[in-house]
Amino acid sequence: GACFRFFCTLLSPPLGFCFLPLRPLCAISGKKEAARAQRAARGPRSKAGSAWGVLRQRSRSVLGAADAMGRERAVRKARYRQVLVKDPKDRTPEDVNMLVEWLRRVSAHGKFPKDVDFELLAKVMRLQIFSPEEFTMTQGEAGDAFYILIEGQVTVIQDDKVQATLASTPEKACLFGELALLNNEPRGATIKVTSDTAKALKL
To answer: Is pTM beyond 0.70 here?
Structure first.
């Protein structure tokens, strides 16, 4: 009996210390159980669902960037239109520089002469707007100007037969009517507007 009491006396202090941490451990365990129950109520989150969330976020970012680019393009187009409708003699040096930059960019898509003076063109060109079915030039007539088609679509007609179709945007312009000036000869073709409207720069 004495040995048993002595043994219990030796064990008592450690056992007291062992019981002290049990309360916080139980509280933590309770929180874990609550969190586990919430996750179970929401249901399992599949890898596909997670991937879809990432894809949706990326799509939103791409669409946002596309919207910003669209707005910037619309502002730039409106600015070009403002400058082009001005009388050439009223254009400021800033206007001319902006048009020169634009001409250099679109010249990569059109058949511009290599030695063309873009600054001179920017100072003298005028915007012309054509109606559907309108003829911008007629085969056989004298050539007094050439055109840069910046919006719309036209057909090239020779001897009453359609030879080609030209379509342009402000970023990809087409040139026509220049051969009569370069070669000092009559117009070699008739140009007819086939879109709802067509916009060209006359030089």
So the answer is: no
Q: CB neighbours (10 Å) of residue 106? A: 20
Residue type, 23: R
Burial tier of 2 (Cβ tally within 10 Å: 0-12, 13-18, 19+): exposed
For the cut 60, the answer to whether the pLDDT of residue 10 exceeds it is no
Question: Residue 93 to residues 90, 105, 119, 193: CA-CA distances in angstroms?
Answer: 10, 19, 10, 33
Query: What spatial distance separates the first Cα and last Cα of the chain, rounded to whole Å?
Result: 122
Please report which helix (H) or strand (E) contains residue 126, including its range. Answer: strand 126-130
Neighbour tally for 151: CB within 10 Å: 16
What is the CB neighbour count within 10 angstroms for residue 76?
A: 14
d(CA 106, CA 124): 17
Say what the pLDDT of residue 198 is. Answer: 92
Nearest to 142 by CA among 185, 178, 183, 182: 185
C-alpha closest to that of 178 among 188, 167, 165, 166: 188
Given a contact cutoff of 8 angstroms between Cβ atoms, the answer to whether 152 and 193 are in contact is yes
